[in-house]
Specification:
Layout (H helix, E strand, L loop, with lengths): L3 E12 L2 E12 L3 E5 L6 H8 L7 E6 L2 E2 L5 H7 L1 E3 L12 H9 L6 H7 L2 H21 L14 H13 L5 E5 L7 H16 L4 E4 L3 H7 L2 E6 L2 E6 L1 H6 L1 H6 L7
Parallel strand pairs: 3-8, 3-9, 6-7, 7-8
Antiparallel strand pairs: 1-2, 1-4, 4-5, 9-10
Helix pairs in contact: 3-5, 3-6, 5-6
Pfam families: ABC_tran (PF00005), BCA_ABC_TP_C (PF12399)
Keywords: ATP-binding, Cell membrane, Membrane, Nucleotide-binding, Transport
GO molecular function, one term: L-valine transmembrane transporter activity
Length: 256
Amino acid sequence: MGDVVLQVAGISKRFGGLQALSDVGVTIHRGQVYGLIGPNGAGKTTFFNVITGLYAPDSGSFELAGKPYKPSAVHEVARAGIARTFQNIRLFPDMTALENVMVGRHIRTSSGLFGAMFRTRHFRDEEAAIARRAQELLEYVGIGRYADYRARTLSYGDQRRLEIARAMATDPQLIALDEPAAGMNATEKTQLRELIDRIRNDDRTILLIEHDVKLVMGLCDRVTVLDYGKQIAEGTPAEVQKNEKVIEAYLGTGAH
């Protein structure tokens, strides 16, 4: 098992009278696909939003690649090394696919405003390198031929791939995917699974929130199950599927 990439512990979050998360934690190792499942309202999205800086936690400790980080703002978390996608696709619809990925890459650039304003040699060289890397990532996720297409003209499945390419452009330690299979047909889900497998095989690390239990159980190395904001199980897919609490809370509802 690889080094620990993400270790969070004791995460709690309350919204008014609702305790959305109670003492939740995960440990994710390098090269793992780690799944987070649970019924609607279980706290999955809240957990995701806390570790990626959208919501401030009421309590909890956060370490990324052995270093503490503070999930106080999305851009700071991105700089620390977590890239995420969203359940509702958030691309720049009128930019090309290539430009969308280049935007993701800019978090790792050094030219600054001066270079951009005066188009210094360093700025031009860096932009060319960013464009090359963006094209490589589009090829990697399987949509290189659409580099010059506006994002909104791509199919739904290809827009999801574009989001993943943009997330990868930040060179993250952890890629956090929020319901990537939502709205996909069977063929697109198969392609998504192949892409996630490829990313893992390249020693990258993924945290996956997903409603599709079958996809999670067939893809993930380890799974945490939330119910009413509490962690009711954690383990391999085989262990989790046998857990009585999980069967009662989730798998017993016919979502196999």
